[in-house]
Amino acid sequence: MTAPRVRAWHRVWGGMLALSVLLVALAQQFPQLGGFPTGLVLNLSDWLNAAVTPAFEAARPLGVLLSALAETPLAAIRSALAWAPWPAAILAVVLIALYSGGWRLALFAAAALGTVVAMGYWPKAMNTLALVLVSVPAAVGIGFALGALAYRFPRTQPALIVMLDVMQTWPAFGYLIPLLILFGFGPTAGLAASVIFSVPPMVRNTLVGLREVPPAIVESALMAGARPGQLFWQAMVPSALPQLLVGVNQTTMASLSMVIIIAIIGGFNDIGWEVLSAMRAAELGRSLGAGLVIVLIAVLLDRITRGFARRGPRVMQARWLLAGLVLALVVALVLSGQDLLPGEQGQRWLRRIDGWLLDFVAWSAPFFAVLRNAITYGVMLPMRIGFSGSASPMVWGFALTPEITAAYVLVSAAIALLLGWRSPQRGIIAGFAALLFWTGLPGFPWPGVFLVVGVATWRKGGTGLFALAMGGLALAGLSGLWVPMMQSVYLCAVAVLICFAIGGALGVIAAESDRFSAFLRPISDTLQTMPQFVFLIPALMLFKVGEFTALIAIVLYAVVPPIRYVEHGLRNARADLVEAGVQMGATTWQMLWQVKLPLARSSVLLGLNQTIMAALSMLVIAALVGTRELGQQVYVALSRADAGAGLISGAIITCVALVSDRLLRSRSSIHRKVPE
Amino acid sequence: MAQASSRIMLSCKHLWKVFGPRPAYYFDTAGYRIDPEALAARLRGEGHIPAVVDASFDVKQGEIFVIMGLSGSGKSTLVRCLSRLLDIEYGTMEFDGQDLARISGRDLIEIRRRKMGMVFQSFGLMPHLTALENVAFPLKLQGVARSEREARAREMLELVELGSRLDALPSQLSGGQQQRVGIARSLAPDPDLWFLDEPFSALDPLIHRQMQDEFLRLQNQLKKTIVFITHDIMEACRLADRIALMRGGRIIQLGTPAEILLSPVDDYVADFTAEVALSRAIRVRDLARPAQGEPPEGPPVPAAAPIEVVLPALAAGQRRFRVEGDGGLELEAGAVLEVLQRDARHGFRADGASA
Amino acid sequence: MLKKYVTVAVSALALAGLTSAPVMAAEMGAAGEPIKLAMLEWTGAQISSQIAGKILEKAGYKAEYVTAGNYPHFQGLADGEISASVEIWLNNVGEVYPKVLAAGKVEDLGTLGLKTNEGWIYPKFMEEICPALPSWEALKDPACVGLLATPDTLPNGRFLDYPADWGSRAATIIADNNLPLTAVPSGSEGAMLSELRAAEAARTPLVMMFWAPHFILAEVEVGWIEMPVCVDQSNEHCIMPPDVNKVVWSGFAGKWPAAYQILKDFRLSTEDQQKMMLAIDEKGQSLDAVTTAWVDENEAIWRPWVDAALN
């Protein structure tokens, strides 16, 4: 066997490793190499406030106008929904479901809405629906217009794509303050946040839809003598309609996920408000019930919009639907004014869940305490304070003597060299791992972080990405948020590792077993649509306030993408190659590790990307259980009404998200769609 | 196979279409003066793709003008230049007394609405419209009232024998049926100039012939001026009054099928046509000459029929055949035999090459 | 609309200028316009709001309840989107409230009359394992501190502090008294309640910052730690019971003069609020029913406020 060729980039990374080792060693002597030097911290948020606050206050008249524009239809829809007696409203929705998706969907609609009524959440659910019915058309309209303009002017597309990524990754809590200044107190600020977050999928789908209109359709319309307007509205838009409806569907889902954000501001007495109040009172039953309402509305809207996106025969004709809706209106007129809502029974029943939870907590506390301690000592502390911090009598029961330090250095150097002899790449990775394990992620010397991230982004993404990454790091350092940023990265890194271990395994099993897959699917759907606040309560009771509970909350949400993408990748592995593997006599394990997983590589990488995005998006919510990272900074800024600080913390989270996205994306394909 | 009049419908001179970063740079308004080959070579060398190189031809009223070539030869680009789906860099396209290359957008829309029709390889049907609505679509764009345009669309669909599938969506139709809808649509405004861009290529080979027959039947009825694009030499020979053979953006030979088959200008064309069974592709009228002396005996043979129809009689010893029509034409056995000998040589060479 | 407000406000002012009697009946003002009362997240504030609203209705006003987040709602008050908020804990107002108060956009109507408490609490069962409780000295006992220790805080005991965004003095007080405790921010009120409930259920030791009145205190039996003597009496080093005040939009007095008087007089006792919280949060009765019952039964309390304002 010959030693593998040492390539240029091996030398680059080898050099980086050597430099990093040097930095770590020096950091023992010069603490200013460890954390970002406080002397360099600038009062960025004050400067930003001085610029942002007057600007938004100056724009206030415009905000008030928009506010009025948004709140007029909102009030109308809200009072219409509040007026309609629930039997009539359910009848109408069931008919629409029947038209869109057939009998099964109609049955589901009836059951779901019946549950909402029984739990006593009907009026709040209708208020939520009113919010969605205003924010979705607004987001769809804006998204379609932006998408169409971007299609017309292709030069604007790269900038637009970046803007969309920013809109989707910037935590909404981070810009609530400026929105409040602009729009004043009321649902409009929340609606605006919701629209900002839910516009991007519509833009993307519009762009894809218009781009993928077959050229023959465009040409045939042109040859039929279509004017530009006719070409667009009568040929391109109808042809792109299925894709546009996918956009409407995704926008609706995104909009529903923002219901909670609207409730943070308040003013609407909706389901999001109920979730928040229940969370505040730490009542699992109520928050579970309210969360379930959101899930049911989400699933219902999802299936109905998807049903409309489908082309083909319908169970009933449009005119029958219309007749049915008229009937529902008649029912509404007959029943209106009567108090038909059930009493407090449902709410009381929900409260019982809290009793069960407390019984469970009392019964299982010792077990969960052990679990918590094991993961805290074994995984979280080493990643946070590193071997050098963990090796203390308090944590691991032994002190960090010079002998132990020397042994650590020798062993890790030996492992790195051994691995490096066979493959330089593995040696370098092992070296970095040993170094990180020594310092802990947040304790890695800051010039080293700049160096490593700089080289990685430069090589993978060129100047643009490099500038973004360096800008983000500099922003974190200069605004005094270096430690919270590193804490965020650390928390997300641990969460992503755990998600991939658990989600990957579940995805593998789901790919092999249809029954398990069918069992897992509704759970995944629920984990992704249920407001995360709901999971915080049991997690808090079992694991107490702190990073570990934050980790659990993040994992619960971010575990879904690896499940989906791993299953998707494995199931769609090319059949001929799999058959070839079988023919060569591969065992099940060999099949998995040596054939299917490598084939599913791009899907798995995309799943990793999505997992990171999901984990980052949970940071702000995880802050509610007491963390020290950027999400917490966002909250602190929110409570101080410090627009600048909120914007800065949000911007850093966005930078982290964009950089990790671009780093991974350059490896996996960009245009893959989410598996259903 | 309609008889073309001598009136010229579309006259193209020195058409150039170039793809690349700045094609206009190479053509100033005064016109280029250098050799087309040299210019094309320079364009290729400087990162451009000359897709149509100095194409000149006339299309006569009522004729089927086939542009034929392999993929990448520029034939699809050329037809898109003729319909102004692409703008040309240089040249003139005279149609109906106007230079198509220079008319305004408004006039172009008007011409497309009333005087041009086009059929596409991948049909280009609107997926959300029924067959009837698709055919009525061009009329709808013109603002024709619903009842009127649907009556016309129904008529067109009956013409292509789809009168029973008016309400079907494109996804519910077979490929052949979809293309019939495409044909009906392109004919709905009753255009003078009809472009067909590889209309049958996406279809199952088994129904090619059926669709070709259908097309010929339609043309006999409608007598349109047709520009037909194909990569299939057999199809070209069956349908064409004249063929323009393209290679690398240039028209390398222009003539009747018989001229191309019997007198290829170079080895490329010869190779290209080698596979064609001449006895089927050459038609009686291609070899016919004015009758000399006594009119031949026996039943007349159709002028448009392939010469293979005379083979049984030829074998039986007949030497002269009367050609249908009042032109006083005859077909002489020697001419037929000469063609059959070429056929035999081709077959031998093809076998030799494959051995 | 706006014109009408202005006319009403102007006439109210004009009237005030004309009559100069020391005790005077206030004008109703824009009684047709609903008075928007903030419904904040916690039950206590919702009770206070509902009762205030129902008393205003008895006086002939229309009341509307607007759910609102604690921090954002100050913006609403400043803009007049929310007319009044009757239970504002002045220890938890963030940085918006002082700003809008200083700018004269809101007006403080004085105390609601709740007797509040704030301090360090522990679940009552802990007195068995740390016998020195409720004295703060118990928190110096290594055995007791060891029970409170967690991996995050070793070797110190864990002290559950207010969420980071509330601002807390616990860390200062711990340092002042050299206590072997580490303050861990709790993130949210829900997190604090979850911990307290779980601690009670699983009998795990816990010491945390808390306040009263709060419905959880009816559910979980807690003890209040007797705090050490403050290093000085500043807010940084000393816990003092917070004031709970009523705050209205600055235009309130002009628009609804009589309502302004009523709210100024409005008081609610801790005991009453505590009882209603229990009925709502523990017995599952509706907010509306409970507060209506209070208003019906306590006319003796609120009637004088209404009469004073109207007659």
Automatic annotation (TrEMBL), chain A:
According to its record, how does it sit in the membrane? Multi-pass membrane protein
The record's keywords, sorted A to Z, are:
Cell membrane, Membrane, Transmembrane, Transmembrane helix, Transport
Domain (ABC transmembrane type-1) ranges: 125-305, 485-664
Q: Which InterPro entries match?
A: MetI-like, MetI-like_sf
Where does the UniProt annotation locate this protein?
Cell membrane
Q: Which CDD domains match?
A: TM_PBP2
Q: Which Gene3D superfamilies match?
A: MetI-like
Looking at the UniProt entry, the stretches that span the membrane are: 75-98, 105-123, 129-151, 172-197, 254-276, 288-305, 317-335, 356-375, 395-421, 428-458, 464-483, 490-513, 533-560, 604-625, 645-664
Pfam families attached to this UniProt entry? BPD_transp_1 (PF00528)
Family the entry assigns:
Belongs to the binding-protein-dependent transport system permease family.
Which protein are we looking at? ABC transporter permease
Which species expresses this protein natively? Tabrizicola soli
Automatic annotation (TrEMBL), chain B:
Q: Tell me the superkingdom of the source.
A: Bacteria
What Pfam families does this protein's entry cite?
A: ABC_tran (PF00005)
Please name the InterPro entries in this protein's record: AAA+_ATPase, ABC_osmolyte_uptake_ATP-bind, ABC_transporter-like_ATP-bd, ABC_transporter-like_CS, P-loop_NTPase
* Molecular function as annotated in GO: ATP binding
Name the keywords, alphabetized: ATP-binding, Nucleotide-binding
Q: Where is the ABC transporter domain?
A: 34-273
Q: Which PANTHER family match?
A: GLYCINE BETAINE/PROLINE BETAINE TRANSPORT SYSTEM ATP-BINDING PROTEIN PROV, GLYCINE BETAINE_PROLINE BETAINE TRANSPORT SYSTEM ATP-BINDING PROTEIN PROV
**Protein's name according to its UniProt entry:** ATP-binding cassette domain-containing protein
Q: Which organism is it from?
A: Tabrizicola soli
Automatic annotation (TrEMBL), chain C:
What are the record keywords, sorted? Signal
Question: Which residue numbers delimit the ABC-type glycine betaine transport system substrate-binding domain?
Answer: 34-297
Entry-linked Pfam families? OpuAC (PF04069)
Instruction: Check the UniProt entry and state the signal peptide residues, or none.
Output: 1-25
Name of the featured protein: ABC transporter substrate-binding protein
List the source organism.
Tabrizicola soli
From the broadest rank down, the organism's phylogenetic lineage runs: Bacteria, Pseudomonadati, Pseudomonadota, Alphaproteobacteria, Rhodobacterales
